[in-house]
Write a structure and sequence with these properties.
The protein has 16 helices and 23 strands. The protein is α/β, with parallel strands linked by helices. The strands form five sheets. The protein has a seven-stranded mixed sheet. The protein has a six-stranded parallel sheet with strand order 10-9-13-14-15-16. Helix 1 packs across helix 2. The relative contact order is 0.08.
Length: 510
């Protein structure tokens, strides 16, 4: 190699060449720690190509008081001081102490400016890859090594495009591995000599890069939803977060995180449905994630319990807005759910709700013969929109029908509006005890033209035994989803349980 040959067009190309040498780490628990500012462009290219998280590690050069360009050493964010060969001997100790504090202050400024202050992701038990755009004396990289070493990584790798031979040996002595594109026998004295374009990098460029490269969201799953998490985690760019729930002898609950979440987007797959401990545990986990630096917390609750308690009735509790307020205070930014009970819930909730319709899922998974020649029936006016959506998705040509409730004193009667053919499909969001559904089916049975009935419900609670009488009436089959873990236990020849995992995956893709 000719020492005068410029090896890299720019820092991005240098990072891409380094990524090729780091390919063996792809898919492992690795993270890139870039040294600002030039190292960020190089590190970003590696992170992008190998799908690694990108974070920053900070170290600042300590220049000689008479010649600031001459490095005496470097200091890291945590105060690790590394001396160069010339060292700090003979340097006034008070001046050195002041200079160290000045450089640590600059590190704090840069952290706040580049990352808006959240703590860096811990390197503990990870493959930590420290990246710079090149090494000359190596002081700042050596300080960065000490900073990351203190976090007990599984392995510490330093990756740079170019390094002098003597400095390379110093790095090898301190790190587990040095990866370099070139280590010239005769170093040209400056890193920039190996680049066609080595313009100074601005704060604004660093900020733009850090904003552009999202870190993989972490998904924290409560045990009852492991069956859904195993499907969701197959998505590229979603990582599993770990936590433990402990119960003391006095029955109090404690949540302990086992994953670092500083600067991370976090998802919680869980439920607020009874027993009440679920709401406590879910809220405590969200609060702990925010306390530890998570940038956002999204609740993935396939079934949003308490959503039917949204009416303001005298002398009765109104659970829907109360639960919403608990979740808001806990730190949730959004709740992703499936087929929320009513549009009014989205108005009452103080946390934004993203409600996904399962209509496409039902249309895809249910045998098309079920829909042929069928009439879609809504059990009440509140279910009309849901029923019409499924009708349009399945391209059923027959007009829908619905029941309209009428009050007569203390009694509630339902009147059928519309004509129903030989095959009826009743569509609703929830099958709880089955009282409403039994009433609807009973009314259809009295319609002499109805010979075959199917029930499609998003959330199958299957409370008690009343719902079982549906099969004694003319209901051939019930279709529901696994939005509620317990529904999976009801799967049989007459109850088909469809996974909502595709809906949750689509939500995450968007």
């Amino acid at each position: 190699m000719s020492n005068g040959m410029r090896q890299f067009k720019n820092r991005t190309e240098a990072g891409e060449k380094l990524a090729e040498k780091l390919e063996r780490y792809k898919g492992q628990n690795a993270i890139v720690y870039a040294l600002p500012r030039g190292g960020v462009i190089t590190g970003a290219a590696i992170a992008k190509k190998l799908n690694f998280p990108l974070d920053l590690v900070f170290a600042r050069k300590i220049g000689h008081p008479l010649n600031p360009e001459f490095a005496l050493g470097a200091v890291s964010e945590g105060g690790h001081l590394v001396e160069t060969l010339s060292g700090v001997r003979g340097i006034d100790s008070e001046w050195l102490a002041r200079e160290i504090e000045i450089q640590k202050g600059e590190i704090r400024r840069r952290r706040e400016r580049y990352l808006r202050g959240p703590p860096s992701t811990s390197a503990q038990n990870k493959i930590a890859i420290i990246v710079d755009d090149g090494i000359a004396t190596g002081a700042t990289v050596l300080a960065a090594i000490e900073e990351i070493k203190a976090q007990n990584p599984a392995k510490l790798v330093v990756a740079v495009p170019v390094s002098p031979p003597d400095t390379a040996q110093l790095i090898r002595d301190k790190a587990d591995e040095l990866v370099a594109v070139i280590i010239p026998d005769l170093f040209l004295g400056a890193v920039g000599a190996y680049y066609e374009n080595f313009d100074q990098v601005s704060d604004e460029e660093v900020i733009e890069i850090m904003n552009e490269i999202p870190s993989d969201p972490l998904i924290f799953t409560f045990p009852e939803f492991k069956y859904l998490a195993s499907e969701i985690e197959k998505l590229e760019g979603v990582s599993q977060g770990r936590f433990a729930t402990r119960r003391f002898k006095n029955e109090e609950i404690e949540i302990e995180l086992q994953s670092d979440v500083g600067g991370q987007s976090c998802l919680i797959l869980g439920s607020v449905a009874p027993p009440a401990d679920r709401l406590i545990e879910l809220s405590m986990l969200a609060h702990t994630l925010r306390k530890e630096g998570a940038t956002e917390v999204i609740g993935m609750m396939p079934y949003l319990a308490y959503s039917r308690q949204d009416k303001n009735e005298p002398m009765k509790s109104m659970a829907t807005p109360l639960i919403s307020e608990i979740l808001r205070v806990a730190g949730f930014n959004e709740i992703a759910t499936i087929d929320v009970h009513s549009d009014y819930d989205e108005y009452v909730f103080t946390v934004p709700i993203a409600s996904m319709s399962p209509a496409q899922l039902f249309a895809k998974e249910i045998d098309k013969e079920v829909f042929e020649g069928a009439t879609i029936v809504a059990p009440d006016e509140g279910a009309i929109e849901r029923a019409e959506y499924l009708k349009n998705v399945t391209r059923i040509k027959r007009p829908s029908a619905y029941f309209k409730k009428r009050r007569s004193g203390q009694e509630v009667e339902s009147a059928l509006h519309g004509e129903v053919g030989p095959k009826a499909i009743i569509v609703d969001d929830i099958l709880d005890t089955g009282k409403t559904m039994v009433t609807t089916v009973d009314a259809l049975v009295n319609n002499e033209g109805v010979k075959e009935i199917y029930v499609i419900v998003t959330h199958g609670l299957f409370t008690g035994t009343l719902w079982e009488t549906l099969f004694d009436l003319k209901v051939k089959k019930i279709f529901t989803t696994d939005s509620i873990p317990e529904a999976r236990q009801k799967a049989s020849d007459r109850i088909e349980v469809i996974s909502v995992a595709p809906l949750l995956r689509d939500y995450l893709r968007e």
